[in-house]
């Protein structure tokens, strides 16, 4: 559909840009002047703590002075929300209350029928939802909350209830003027042997299914009374073709566009559970084997989606079928990763037991498609020359199925490299370890790096801040326990500093350094510097933001970050030792390892988030001081 420049310009004039952007940001009240159309916020395109994102309503233009993202109404809807151009224009026209230009020729009858069917589906969704939240929906709500779904989640996804009363939907929608033929065409009701029209869904928790543009096209129903099938979808209709749809694609588009990743799970309740845990970039294949249309739709959301399969034989079989569908469609820049869940678990189970941290930790172990293919084929046997030859033949045939010639050539090369490594490993006269179940298995976690100079310097900065602000010794006393420092010299110096503070209660760096015993001077010289200083020269070298004289609140948050980073080092070291310590302990050991991995991943993510936030704040402090002419911008630890 084409739109004239005049029509697009009129839409921009009628809808303030701040109305579009304001759905994604919170305006900074100190910097913004709404009356003048001059608004500021933290940028929605990158992580920051101080507002550098500017919206000018008068010009209809936005710009971020941090990441340099800029544009107008439509570019925000396409670049931030992940809409295509036509949907962005339709969204803008809807906000402006302006109809889209009429096409030159009359609307075909099929289009009118589809519109009537959509109306019937929307009316059904409203009825199901009101029933769930009515007095008769308590048992269904209890079931949903027992699955871990909050009221907010149920409302976000439009959950509803089809009561176990035959004719409930037909009677209610008939009173609203919905014709019986529309109920049949929309898949909401069925007629058997010329009998009366009957509800298709009864006694089920209902979830609306949308097309990629966010329009309801069908429903999924989960039984509440034990009847089979457990899950029932709408039948194939002119609107609903489950082989071409991905559940939640319309909600996942924006988050996937921003994060660059997409998770594909098997069931829609799994997708709801993952999204409810905070992972918004998730879709579901509606319980079918992944089809070519679904693969291509997933690639419109992310270049390398991650397929998550249940940790059982059925899940592994589904993964293998997906591999066979994906291989011929591969092209430059488009592939998949594979994530096998623990044995007997689906994404919902994982979220229930470990929350988002467990899911994120496992997601880090997703394997590229090329490795998933190789492991699947190698697991069929590769321990004799004959089996190696058969493996090589199968891999050549798979690489030959790839339509993109360049990708096919690179897969041939990658398979040869892995075959060579496999043959070398088999030729070594070393004790072989049991292969175990290799198919799509998650690789072992890498061992952490040994202590480096950066962490030693971090220990020195932490000690320097204790001298700079003696009150921090008392404030962070509980965190400064045994084991926080790896360096024995630093640990000993910390003990002297804490003893000196307890005895003399110094209030300034000068008082504290003067009160330290003589045998602390060597370490003091390294951590702080020689002589009496308001800020030690060695500390200033390592932590140059101090030249900008940041406030105590900022320094306290830096101190918290540094102590968290030093604590994380010990956790990573413990995680590295767990596999060997837990070897042979079976499922309990694997569960312990996964739990520890999730905790370390969550701590790492929190530390990285805090570090980015403080770096943004430090950059803002530097800019402010540079504009005031008191300091020139420079890079620092933050």
From TrEMBL:
Residues 260-344 form the Toprim domain. It comes from the Bacteria. Coiled coil: none annotated. The keyword Repeat does not apply. GO terms for molecular function: DNA binding; DNA-directed RNA polymerase activity; zinc ion binding. Gene3D superfamilies: 3.40.1360.10, DNA primase, catalytic core, N-terminal domain, Zinc finger, CHC2-type domain. A zinc finger (CHC2-type) spans 43-67. Its cofactor is Zn(2+). One of its GO terms (biological process) is DNA replication, synthesis of primer. Signal peptide: none annotated. Pfam families: DNAG_N, Toprim_2, Zn_ribbon_DnaG. Binds 1 zinc ion per monomer. SUPFAM superfamilies: DNA primase core, Zinc beta-ribbon. GO terms for cellular component: cytoplasm; DNA-directed RNA polymerase complex; primosome complex. Keywords: DNA replication, DNA-binding, DNA-directed RNA polymerase, Magnesium, Metal-binding, Nucleotidyltransferase, Primosome, Transcription, Transferase, Zinc, Zinc-finger. The keyword Nucleotide-binding does not apply. InterPro entries: DNA_primase_core_N_sf, DNA_primase_DnaG, DNA_primase_Znf_CHC2, DnaG_bac, DNAG_N, DnaG_primase, TOPRIM_DnaG_bac, TOPRIM_dom. Its EC number is 2.7.7.101. It catalyses: ssDNA + n NTP = ssDNA/pppN(pN)n-1 hybrid + (n-1) diphosphate. NCBIfam families: dnaG. Monomer. Interacts with DnaB. Contains an N-terminal zinc-binding domain, a central core domain that contains the primase activity, and a C-terminal DnaB-binding domain. RNA polymerase that catalyzes the synthesis of short RNA molecules used as primers for DNA polymerase during DNA replication. HAMAP family: DNA_primase_DnaG. Belongs to the DnaG primase family. This is DNA primase. It comes from Acuticoccus mangrovi. The gene is dnaG.
